[in-house]
Every structure is written in structure tokens, then in C-alpha cells.
Amino acid sequence: MGDGSPGLEQGTVRVDIGTIVGIGIAVMAIVVGIIMGGSPMALVDPVSLVIVVLGTIGAVTICFPLAKMLKLHTVILKAVFSTPTDIVAIILDLVKYAELARREGILSLENMVDEMRDPFIVRGIKMAVDGTDPELIKEIMDTELEAMMDRHAESKQILDSIAKYAPAFGMIGTLLGLIFMLQAMEDPSAIGPSMAVALITTLYGAMVANLFASPIAEKLTARDSEEVLAKTVIIAGVMAIQSGDNPRVVQSKLATFLSPEERDRVLEEAA
């Protein structure tokens, strides 16, 4: 996607089963541990929840513009709903455009624009068809890629901040609980609730960081890497087409970005 979080701008959006399964396994491990260890209600404490959740939200809101925070849910959803990146399909499309440009001239690609599935390819091909200077084409496309990477990095940074501040507020809650406990030493009935706040806030902070924020941030990093690779391949393909390279040369150039298995697939599909 191009709005600040990873995901391609083409194809059908799908549910990422791996993310769902991973979250399910992690949550199940904690739930089973709670059930086997004692009463689940013993780990429910509204005071601890308020300290960790609201404290973390407040601290992260200080760090980032409010407009970015209000769009955080869209960033999180990108970890669950993704657009698969098929690098092989992108390369095959670029090779097809190279064949047409080689056979009928680069201006013939203007008739193919409506069939192109990726807007990034469309922008590059249009500039090439318009006769834009090759260095300027590459500069524009590289700048767009860098801007996308910056947006993605900022989105990940928000989640990294949540992972950093949640345990910190868990520790703040622990200190508050210990203070309350020490102040109530003459009242044995108050020691238990105060100790619960002290321990449960640390638990909540660790859960927010390690069950939610950090895994989602790493998933977004993986999404970003996929999209960066796709756009890097597109830039190389557009520049090769613009320079009039032989389609086989274009295929060979772009195949260097792939794993051996994907290279074999390109050869099979091309054949």
C-alpha cells in the first residue's frame, strides 16, 4: 500500500492466516497457563489496565502527531489484511512490455497502460513513453520508493514506541502498588489488592509489548521488505525497457532479484 503502511497497491486483499494463527497460538498459550495455574479472574484488575493502556496511549501520543495516532488502526489492520506480492508475475509483465516495445516501439506501450495492474509500473511506463530523460525517470521513481519507505518506517516506529512504553507503565504500576502496600502495612486486608496491582501491571505491560506491539511491528517490516523488493524490480524493469534492452536481457536482469526456485518459475512461465 502507499498510504503509510506496508502492502502492495495491486491485487486482491487477503487475510494473512499466519498472523491470525500466530496470535491465536500466543493467546492460547497464555490462557492455558492461566487456567492451569489458577483462577483467571485473579488476573483481571481494572486499575492495572487503566495504568498500562491509557498511560501507553498518552506517552505515544506525545511522541507522534495526533493525525498519525488516529490512523493507527489502519496500520495494524495491514498486518492481518495484506495484498500478496507476486514478484514473478511482475517480472513476466515487464518482460512482456519489453517484447512489445522492442517489436513495435516504446510508444506502443501507451495502449497497454489500461492493462497494467500496478500503478507504479504505469507511472514509470508513462514517463518512458513521454520521452522523459532516463535519469529523471529513475530519480522520480527512486524518490517515490524512498518516501514510501519513510512512511512505513514511521508506522513501525509507532508500534515500537508502544512496545517500549507499555512495559515502562507496567513498572510504574508496580511501583504504585508497592507504595500502596507499604502505606497499608497496618491493614493486612489491603496488602493483597496492592500487591495484585504491583504484579499485574507488569504482566499487562509485557503482554501489550510482546503479544501485540512487537509482533505487529515485525510483520509490518516484512510487508515493507516485500513492497520495496517489488518496486525495486519495477524500477529496474522500466529503466531496461526505456533503454531498449533485449527482452531476454530484461528477464535476466530482473531474475537476479529472485530465489533459485522463483527464477525457475520465471523460465517456465516465459517458455
Mean pLDDT: 86
Instruction: Tell me how many strands there are.
Output: 2
Q: Provide a count of the helices.
A: 10
Biggest sheet record: 2 strands, antiparallel
Structural class, please? mainly alpha
Task: Provide structural commentary.
There is one protein chain. Strands 1-2 form a two-stranded antiparallel sheet. The N terminus is likely disordered. The protein is an all-alpha fold and 271 residues long. Helices cover 76% and strands 1% of the residues. It is elongated and about 90 Å long. The chain has one domain.
Offer a concise description of the structure.
This protein is mostly helical and 271 residues long. It is 76% helix and 1% strand.
Task: Provide the fold topology.
Blueprint: E1 14-15, H1 17-37, H2 46-63, H3 66-70, H4 72-80, E2 81-82, H5 87-104, H6 119-129, H7 134-183, H8 188-242, H9 247-255, H10 260-270
Antiparallel strand pairs: 1-2
Helix pairs in contact: 2-7, 2-8, 4-8, 5-8, 5-9, 5-10, 6-8, 7-8, 8-9
